[in-house]
Amino acid sequence: MMAGRLWASAILATGAACAQEYLPPIPVTHPAIQYFQAPVTDPVSAFLKKLQSGEAKLTSRGGDLGYLPSLLENFHIAVDSQALVFSKTSFQAPKISPKNPRAIYFTDDVAVAYVRGGNGLEIAATDPQQGIVLYEFKADASGKPSFTRSDVCLKCHQGPATLGVPGIFVGSVFPDPAGVPQREGAIITDHRTKFEDRWGGWYVNARRGEQPDRANSVADNPADPTALNTEGQQNLTSLIGRFDPAGYLSPTSDIVALMTFEHQTQMINFFTRVNWEARMVEHDGKAAEVTRMQLNADLESLAAYMTFADEVPLKDPMEGVSTFTKTFSHRGPRDAKGRSLRDFDLQKRLFRYRLSYMIYSAQFDALPVDVRDRIYRLVYEKLAALPLEERRAIVEIVRETKPGVPEYWR
User: Pick from 42, 88, 190, 271: CA 20 to 30 A from residue 50's CA?
Assistant: First the structure.
């Protein structure tokens, strides 16, 4: 079972990435990590306890959707987060195509992938200490559901695409008309990636002006497999005619949801990496000098990413096609003036305030105290580069809504 492969749009074994630095892999077997041996408290493991005690219940809708709606409800994942990817890049690749895209749904700490007519669901859940934990969900012949964790996923989900730790990512490829990706030009994407390189192999609904990208397109000339036919593929507000929406929870693939997911995936991977490095330094003592130096560099990179330092600006205003823009923002928290780090801008950039909402995550709170304090200091220093009004707003929001903020933030 290679469940983890469902999370990318086609990054196979490449270290190429726009704006993303390559980081050496961290061994999951290190005594300070013990990725497969240490207990986890991710949303799936917590849900399993509720399921066993009878506090939670799973019900099947039948048909292709099966347990999907019930799983999303139990994990508090909104249907409007749906993003559709049609490149053939998972163990269910034969069932994925532009006519039968894979759907991904997510919230801050868990994501679910679904293939119509597929063999089970894939779930990526974030453990505060261990980072992303990948599960496969299936129902047996009697209809009884089960969750299985597998190490095979790490073949694709620990490497250059994930900052060297178990993680998830969004990728961009050059797919042919059947959805088969061309390995050349496959990249990892996030808010630092040029729009012209993003979303190859994905469906994207949006009004976004003159900001060309790879979305909704295929390379239909075998003699030139990296030349996408993008004519008429931009600013699609509907995907009608591209695939049959029967058997899906929504007919849309919202651009704002996808861009949010892009940012979130690498933010989670950064938190995992510095957590692991700090634990290794503490465990190895003087023998960890190289790891300590790498941790220092990674903290700088994390702080830059967390404050959107290298974000590619929008050339034109952007508008999604689902309710995601509103529902995501409404999840707060908000300060006394009604402001939130989850508020979108969509005029010049993705978010109104350039500090990641993932500062509220359990994963951030679980970082070793000294690491968390250093991130607060680095982030505070990087905010100095922002316009005074925006910087002041961010500081006010954080000090009102985030417990444990250092005194100098106040």
Answer: 271
